[in-house]
Amino acid sequence: MGFSSTITEVVLLIASVVLASGVSAQAMYAGLSLQSSIVQTVDMSKRNLNTRIDIGYATVNETTNPRYFVIYAKNTGLMPLTDFSVIDVYVGEYGKAVFCYYGEDATVGSGKFSLSDVDGDGVWEIGETAIIKAYPSIDINATIYEVKIVPFRGIPSSYVFPPPP
Fold first, then answer.
1. Do 27 and 96 lie in a common domain?
2. For 88, phi and psi rounded to 5 degrees?
3. 51 neighbors 156 (Cβ within 8 angstroms)
4. pTM, whole model, 2 decimals?
């Protein structure tokens, strides 16, 4: 009877160690999964903060029909921008702005915008001001105008202004 109870204790001890190892492995997997999720969220938030555009000044060119908007914007983020198609520009009457998308061939009335950086190298460097010309597809005449620039996964910037005198 003494030998069989010793074997039983050894079997129970081995079973306990195996069960404890399994629980420990599952807890480590859950912890590492949580850590990975947190690191991913922090990385995405950091990337969002790295892309930032601020509008310094905007006006409406009223010499053409339809009118178009001239926007001076600065890259105040922490990374240069090279793909301007990921930037959305909204222009128009305050509260009723229309969307313009990037196009190198933007012309008056096309519903597109063009962007030219100051040094003309096609890279919107950190701290560099760019000139954005937004050409809405409709003529907009308002007492208060609004311009909004929204970079993909970045911080948007808005600017409200009256028409030129």
1. no
2. -105, 140
3. no
4. 0.73
Element holding 46 (H helix, E strand): helix 2-50
Residue 141 contacts residue 67 (beta carbons within 8 Å): yes
Answer yes or no: do 66 and 42 share one domain: no
Residue 27 and residue 62 in one domain: no
Domain that holds residue 139: 53-161
With the CA atoms of 99, 104, 108 and 113 taken in that order, what torsion angle do they form, in degrees rounded to the nearest 10? Answer: 30
What CA–CA distances, in Å, run from 126 to 47, 84, 91, 97, 123? 15, 14, 24, 27, 9
pLDDT digits (tens, 9 = 90+) for 20-63: 888 888 888 888 888 888 888 887 777 667 789 999 999 999 88
User: In the predicted model, what is the mean pLDDT of residues 150-158?
Assistant: 89
Q: Are residues 40 and 57 in the same domain?
A: no
pLDDT of 121 over the 60 cut:
yes
* CATH code for position 77: 2.60.40
Could you give the number of structural domains in the chain?
A: 2
